[in-house]
Design goal:
The protein is α/β, with parallel strands linked by helices. Helices cover 42% and strands 17% of the residues. The longest helix is centred in the C-terminal third of the chain and has 14 residues.
Amino acid sequence: MAATLYLVSTPIGNLEDITLRAIRVLKEEVSLIACEDTRQTSKLLDHYDIRKPLVSYHNHNEAGRAESLVTKLLDGFSIALLSDAGTPLVSDPGFRLVKAAIDAGVNVVPLAGPSAVLAALVASGLPSETFRFIGFLPARHNARRKTLESLRDEQTAVIAYESPHRILEALADMHEILGDRPMALGRELTKIHEEMLRGTPHSIHETLRSRPAVKGEITLVIGRATTPPAAPDLDPVAEADRLQREEGMGRMAAIKAVAKRLRLPKREVYRLLENGSERK
């Protein structure tokens, strides 16, 4: 008879941030613990005197290991899945195992607990009734900028992870693409050197740039766009003409403003204006 696959949330820093239920399940309900890094998980288990066999389960062995773990589940052995920190599957491996377990008819039970996403959101000081989590920002410069451009008109808070060695570049891109919208940066949440910076991409960039180095895990909470998205039927030629006529913008400034609002390349707006001038 199949047993249960438990998805156990673990502390993101402070070892006290684990539920009583999680401790009980790890001690009494499971025969095996699958985790990203057995050395990291051992620190948590030793702290709570939990003695169970560990097996590694990470991005590089996920496909093969998922099959063997489901076999054990079907043989009646309950298993706990842990990530190094926080809730499993949230920017961490585990999806293949959960999907395979469900397909095999295995009972899958989540144990709620710590999450850097929610910790950063509720401490950000930004509206939190709705939000969008996008995982890690792309590491490559162009891909990151493309992602940020897709968020220009986002009408809800956006939460993302970023590494400390890329954070200054990411904040500079955010300032250029998203402007001075409000945001917060959580660093080393729940740990000894926990820090929450609030401000704009530019102000937070300047704060971090003044330091010798930036260390620790980082969670970003980006405030929603301050202006509603442009109407899809907005005529770029008419809008550029209006900006020049009513707001006194120069031609190139108007083109840039229209391109930013409609998320079009500036050369495309320029081409439309040129064609419009030729038809007059």
